[in-house]
Write a structure and sequence with these properties.
- The structure is a homodimer.
- A seven-stranded mixed beta sheet of chain A has the order 1-9-8-7-4-2-3, with helices on both faces. Chain A has a three-stranded antiparallel beta sheet with strand order 10-11-12, covered by helices on one side. Chain A has a two-stranded antiparallel ribbon with strand order 5-6.
- The radius of gyration of chain A is 21 Å and the shape is globular.
- Chain A contains nine helices and twelve strands.
- The first copy, chain A, is α/β, with parallel strands linked by helices.
- In chain A, helix 7 packs parallel to helix 9.
- In chain A, helix 4 links the parallel strand 2 and strand 3.
Chain lengths: 339, 339
Amino acid sequence: MEEAAQGAINLNNSGLSILEISHRSADFTAIIQEAEQLVRELLGVSDDYAVLFLSGGASSQFFMVPMNLLGEGDMAAYLDTGSWSSKAIKEAKLFGKVEVLASSKPDNYNYIPKEFAIPTNAKYLHLTSNNTIYGTQYQWWPETNIPLISDMSSDIFSRPIDVQKFGLIYAGAQKNMGPAGVTLVIVRKDLIGKSGRTLPSMLDYQTHIEGESLYNTPPVFPIYVSMLTLRWIKKMGGLAAVKKINEDKAKLLYDEIDANPLFKGTAAIDDRSRMNVTFVMPEQDLEKSFLKACEEAGCVELKGHRSVGGFRASIYNAMPLEGIQTLVNVMRDYAEKHD
Amino acid sequence: MEEAAQGAINLNNSGLSILEISHRSADFTAIIQEAEQLVRELLGVSDDYAVLFLSGGASSQFFMVPMNLLGEGDMAAYLDTGSWSSKAIKEAKLFGKVEVLASSKPDNYNYIPKEFAIPTNAKYLHLTSNNTIYGTQYQWWPETNIPLISDMSSDIFSRPIDVQKFGLIYAGAQKNMGPAGVTLVIVRKDLIGKSGRTLPSMLDYQTHIEGESLYNTPPVFPIYVSMLTLRWIKKMGGLAAVKKINEDKAKLLYDEIDANPLFKGTAAIDDRSRMNVTFVMPEQDLEKSFLKACEEAGCVELKGHRSVGGFRASIYNAMPLEGIQTLVNVMRDYAEKHD
């Protein structure tokens, strides 16, 4: 934050703010190139893939993916693991046939479906790697010869990814990468330009590949802060190190949930998210006073989404282990006092 | 910049950065509501219009406007005054019939066409209010009963606008409103939802009207800085005061261009832009050494766009009169030394 603020006043001692430099300036070119380079290095992205910094959020990728990859009459396969998947499915239906291979909706999305057949004529298989509301996360990837596409908005840069398994990965920046306003798209170049559609320039991946994300004025400041965040991840030791920390954090909290009789996790154990830990209190009338105890200890924004209830601890990269320890201590103290 | 940087560290003494607060938080709700209120107050926008803060830049409005307002078989009228108009025309052709009523292209876009007939069956008439590359600007609006639509990316908030004359106004923020990454759309609500098209949610103005610009995660920081800029404009005395300053700045520079035999304006006098002042040197071989003299005096980024050549002084709201005076002094000194 301090470094981002410094850039907002005086970037690289240029006397100019990141808020006023041109997106065609040498300073910004260096920033966006370093951001791309860091994405490639941290995730191991080969030259077969383009790395794009777009605007419009992951919500825009919900339709840009089918618009760019599905021709008239083509079919795409989707896995439905929550509200983000559902939105992606809804938008895809505007551009082709959609087969939902599996859905955990009947169980309030509390697990990741594992049994499904992937039709070989599907143009791609789309999944949401982490489900913020329901606290589930893929800990494996489907084996398939068709391109795998994933919305990784809420867990990108939280762990290493074998990018080669994917045709396209997209992610809104605002969880682990930077501030709201920029969307990362990693796309295998050979998938582009085959839909037979004439697209508005801004909605055509090819435009942004040719323009190197500078076809139009990009979101300069969000890209700058993302670059700073990626530098920090590299300094931490890269994604293997980040994954270790995230697993330690998640384990600390899930262990307490499993050990403490006042709490109960909502997601299937194998599919538990390392980013969003969802849990309830079987004695529901205690939830209000427990939430108050959390807030008094400085643990805020813990209220679960209305469709799950209870609590949700969002423990993205920026959350330190100490933050989790504080919450675990509150849970223990609360249980002791309750006895 | 200082205030924006302060917000990046500690917003309203909350201990949280604008870069980490949720777009659903009370702090951000207050920011986006104040930004909307300031837009309404400064431009005099009535409740018949929605005020939206979107992402994707003006380039996305090039296609969102026809996608939302043109039905199959409908026709839209466009005025072609430069490269931004041309891009808007190109995208509109994907969604309906386009009639270009007039174009100044044969004269390298050095004027704003004034003689044209507006077909009454057109759904709207689109124009680009200020043309950054060619240094021209509308100083009047066409009289018509069909909705007028304007890309005001490069001169919004530089002067008062009679919004009632328009069906829709859009503007990328990065000239007079804030940093790159947010786009202002002011749209008369009764125009929406009549195209008969089923649009992706993110591309449907109705989605953003219903979601109050919060359907998806909006570009939080660019909206915050825009709000700060709008506060500053209000403090300056509003748009009448800003217009006066901009006219004084432009007059100072154009007067020197007209008086100094070494320089020549490129745009028709009646259509001269108060935002981008374009000029050349009839003795073209002097241009390089003049540019050097400018840079030595601290006047930078003066090189004209390759399609016009010569020089372009972009004197948006952020440029003080003193900056123009410095440039005028360089022009005078240079002419004296040259004699």
